[in-house]
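Batch job 17 of 40 flagged for manual review because the log was empty.
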Amino acid sequence: MAENDQPGETTQFLQKMDGQLLGWAHPAAHLREALDRDQFRLYAQPVVELRQESAAPGGIAMAEVLVRLREDEARMLPPGDFLPACELYRMMAEVDRWVVGHALKMLGRGGGVRKLSVNVSGQAIEDPGFASFVAAQLRAASLDPASLVIEIDENDAIDRRPAAERFAAEMKGIGCQLLLDGFARRSVSFGLLKALQVDYMKVDGTIVRKILRSASAATKLKAIVRAGEVTGVGVIAECVEDAAILAHLKLLKVGYAQGFAVGRPAPIGELFKS
């Protein structure tokens, strides 16, 4: 922020910028209408089991739920186009609730993957009613709480540490599983894994992409895999975009992989076709 800027002026500038970039005259009202009219759409990307000793090597262990915004018949906005605006207008917790509710309804139909992971924002982490909402949705869908994996981003876990620990305890109390997303993006903090009681850590893509050309990245990933073995935390490599990286991950005994090399995002209904 420039020294002579006021917080209100900065917010107004960001609101105007969002409106211009998205082509919306009133971004907050547009997003509210999208929520009210169920204009969001769910996609999912598989997370595949790599360990040969597992019950189903190569099978789908879970799928990460992703959200899109349908503007019209020909236009589907990716999350990077509208989620920053949701953050700005303090609507992320509502969007997260929408995603959780609709994802669990789909999971409750059966006939597809048995576990879904859902990203939650920092605003959801600080929402005192979010845990009770999740519990109610699980009961309504008659689902095992362990079939829902809550993804907490490393940035939110670090920057909102007290709230994140409280939120994680609430989710574990319900019976949900926890995943720390973007692990080692900022620091390799195994203490954070213990504090949040996570079941999975998803290694940041900036590390995974470099393992074939950077000894430092490969060494860091080996240490993470070893820590996962000791703590019982599953290790997921994200941004696995080619066969060479996938093969190397298997050699390093990484437990799971996610990325275009193992499965692209697709409408969530495709995972539940009988």
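Reviewer: the log was empty due to a logging misconfiguration, but the result itself is present. The first strand starts at residue 40 and ends at 49. Unflagging and moving on to job 18.
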